[in-house]
Amino acid sequence: MDYIVPAQTHIGHVHLKVADIPRSLKFYQDLLGFEITEWYGSSAVFLSAGGYHHHIGLNTWYSKNADPAPQHTAGLFHSAIVYPRRRDLAFILNRLLKAGYPLTGMADHGVSEAIYLNDPDGNGVELYWDKPKDQWPRDEDGNLMMGTEALDTNGLLNELKTAETQ
What we know:
Elements: E1 14-17, H1 21-31, E2 35-40, E3 44-48, E4 56-59, E5 79-82, H2 86-99, E6 103-108, E7 112-118, E8 124-130, H3 153-165
Helix pairs in contact: 2-3
């Protein structure tokens, strides 16, 4: 291999084709809490966390009122949103549960804890936090050993109680 991407490289944003922007905003803005940074006419909107220009773009340029993409075809499997602390993931899990929003899965991957769901257009979304690197599971040779185990939802939600007492 003659080129390796620099370690400081990161994924900047995801831009999604959606059928209905107001419906998508109910999910990304009202439920997940992203803030609108800019509208591009009435056919696109950009959202962010913390004032970045945008983490999520939503547009109807090719998809206004369209059906979701078929599940068993090539395309985006899911976008992933990383929360800075376990407590933040607990907060959004609690919010989703209270809203009765359907989840498609939850997992402890050893390196992270994750919640899976679909947005209103059927786009997969992973919400997760990374465990501290020194807690990542490794074999005796130091190789990373990711897996998929049941998420300790009670332990995760207890983060909210712990936060209240601090």
